[in-house]
Amino acid sequence: MKEIYLAQAKHDVSHLPEKGQLSWESPSNIALVKYWGKHGEQLPDNASLSITLKESVSIVDINFRKQEGGGLQFTFEGKPKPEFETRVQKYLDKMKSYFPFLNYLFLELDSRNTFPHSAGIASSASFMSALALSLCTLESYGREMDAGFFKKASFMARLGSGSASRSVFGALAAWGYHPSVSESSDDYACSLSELLPERLKKIHDAVILVNSAAKKVSSSQGHKLMEGHFLAENRIQQATANMAQLLDAIKDEDWKLFAQVVENEALSLHAMMLSSIPGFTLLQQQTLDIIEMIREEREASGLKMAFTLDAGPNIHLLYHDDDRQAVEAFINDKLKPLAEEQRVIFDQMGPGPVLKHLKSYE
Ligand code: DP6
Q1: Mean of per-residue pLDDT scores for the chain
Q2: Alpha helices in the chain (DSSP H)
Q3: Which residues, including other chains, have CB under 8 Å from residue 330's CB and lie 6 or more apart?
Q4: Could you tell me the distance, in angstroms and rounded to a whole number, from the CA of residue 104 to the centre of ligand 1?
Q5: Cα separation of 316 and 38, whole Å?
Q6: Ligand 1 pocket test target in 35, 49, 158, 246 with most atoms within 8 Å of CB
Q7: In terms of Cα–Cα distance, which of 172, 322, 320, 230 is closest to 37?
Q8: Residue 14 CA to ligand 1 centre (angstroms)
Q9: pLDDT > 90 in the chain, percent
Q10: What is the DSSP secondary structure assignment for residue 100, as one 8-state letter?
Q11: Residue 163 C-alpha to ligand 1 middle, in angstroms?
Q12: Whose CA is nearest to atom 3 of ligand 1?
């Protein structure tokens, strides 16, 4: 795919208006089968599967104008943020081999999120997908956003952050080659939404905050520690088997199997961190306490819920729409008091990114 995209590269800005504006809104996602470990140019060691969120989105607003040499002015929530700007600039520099027209375009780029930082919701996935979609919109200005457009955006998002490749698609998305998913590829994610039975189209996700301090170990460092990890080969096999089982659980609406696989994935992710060299612990005491309470409640009530974890201590509690009221009562009565400042973020499966605005000024 890389060679095809490089061959398609546009070297001038004749297809663009003198000036214009565009705005993409793109959601974060929570992985059910975890991407942990990569090689080569942002290629995953195993296939992963995620739910695209609805309310937790990044909004990227871009004012562009033709200018020799190009350039970037980056703001976050309207204010300069040098540490983010460096990352965006680095990404745009990388993108210039695919989008050489960026050398003739000045971008004023502002980004904001609808969710708090370090809350266990990946802003890199929502932001990088919104940015990749924006670049693809500039490239294909005036053309229809077809399946090829989203595939390319997912490829470009992957180069910014692996999990961002999945955020380009709504509801349920997979990234990484897997024998059970015909369209799957290590290069880009694909939508698996058509697999979702009607009653699973509204999975809810409540993020129970345990600690919103910045992570001690970044995802990039974590992925790196998978290189040479003594369990790496087994982890790849486990993730591959879990993916197949989870797809069956979804198709068959087997919530028990769904919960079993999703929780196994979350705990395996953290087991890999614990057993890396050097090992590290992102789980906290309250994380474990909350997990125990969820298991006890499920045992007693049979509620359709399952926990998962990102690379951090905060809990994502996924639940079936059938049990929404009862699970939310359980969260508010029992889990919320254990959360940091009693903070819980309620979200659910969503339809994916939206182009909010596209306007030209000649
Ligand atoms: C634990 O996508 O943040 O959230 O590709 O280095 O940007 P980079 O990593 P990133 O890793 C996400 C890891 C995870 C699991 C997942 O989302 O699949």
Answers
A1: 95
A2: 2-7, 82-95, 123-139, 147-160, 164-167, 219-224, 232-251, 255-274, 285-301, 324-330
A3: 297, 301, 303
A4: 32
A5: 24
A6: 35
A7: 230
A8: 37
A9: 91
A10: G
A11: 5
A12: 219
**Residue with CA nearest ligand 1 atom 8:** 161
- What CA–CA distance (Å, rounded) separates 143 from 140? 5
Which pairing describes strands 71-76 and 48-66: parallel, antiparallel, or unpaired?
Answer: unpaired
Note the pLDDT tens digit of each residue in 99-127: 999 999 999 999 999 998 877 888 999 99
pLDDT at residue 142, rounded to an integer:
84
Helical ranges in 140-252 per DSSP H = 147-160, 164-167, 219-224, 232-251
Q: Which two tokens stand for residue 30?
A: 């929570």
**296 contacts 290 by C-beta, under 8 angstroms:** no
Q: Judge whether 181 and 148 are in contact, CB under 8 Å.
A: no
Residue 45 and residue 42: Cα distance in Å, rounded? 10
pTM: 0.96
CA 94 to chain centre: 20
What's the burial of 19, exposed, middle or buried (CB within 10 Å: 0-12/13-18/19+)? middle
The DSSP string of 191-222 is E-GGGS-GGGTT-EEEEE-S--SPPSS-HHHH
Determine contact, residues 23/356, Cβ cutoff 8 Å.
yes
Which is the closest atom of ligand 1 to the Cα of 35? 18
Cis ω for the linkage preceding 44 (within 30 of 0): no
DSSP H or E segment with residue 161? none
- Alpha carbon distance, N-terminus to C-terminus of the chain: 34
pLDDT tens digits for 133-180? 999 999 999 889 999 999 999 999 999 999 999 999 999 999 999 999
